[in-house]
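Before relying on records like the one below, remember that each one covers exactly one chain. Contacts with other chains, cofactors or solvent are not represented anywhere in the record.
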Amino acid sequence: MGTIEEKFKILSGRGEGALIGYITCGDPTPDHTLKIAEALVDGGVDMIELGIPFSDPIADGPIIQRATMRALKAGTRPIMVMETARKISEKFENVPVILLTYYNIIFRMGLENFFSIAKENHISGVIVPDLSVEEALEYKALAERYDIDTIFLAAPSTSDERLKKIIEFSSGFVYLVSVFGVTGPRERLRKESIDFVRRVSSISNGRIPVAVGFGISKPSHVRSVIANGADGAIVGSKIVKIVEENIGEEEKMLLKIRSFVRSLKKSTLKQSGLTADRVPVSL
């Protein structure tokens, strides 16, 4: 069992879901990333998803796209992101660090070189939004050789047959995209998203943790997805938005991140008296 699944197991034993916080490495500058990561951990995140800035982030909405542009303008490069991951892992040994990157970056580095460097820098898992399981045989084999989890994405339109394949190929957890479209905070969590969480949880049947992202931006969202079968929630754009709104006011930025994350983490507590059918969702 890898460090990510072990973390899910520990949290489940405590009656908690996992809170995974995303940040774009190097936003607004490389010097900020460690401080923001520390604020996330202080607030209660269980894992950190660290984005490698890329010039064409097709899965990301405008908030993360702007963060990516700020990070690139500040000189952030993939090797710097990996080194930052190591620093975070060394400072917070019980907080797995997961990379999010697009495949072009991996291709340019070379598969084996990428995983070798990732392993050296204590990276626990990698998410590649534009890599499908059908094209990932060599990728998956090398990831296993270096003991790095391969986290694949599934969308509401994914068929049950393909979901089974994604579950089989994934390790660490399966990343559920809760809505159609790109990343970004949503005001309401729709019934279709909850139905999707229930469907995947039923198919997975405990074989691998399930975490939900895209549009998760409120404590009520976190509470709903976990109460309906998810093992964790992924929050990114709302955190990145706090960074964006407080550039130039570092202490205020970090304070707001801690406070927001703390409210999210409280919502990961599993309530034995609250059944899935009683969790309110928006229609």
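The domain at 3-150+230-265 is CATH 3.20.20.70 (TIM Barrel).
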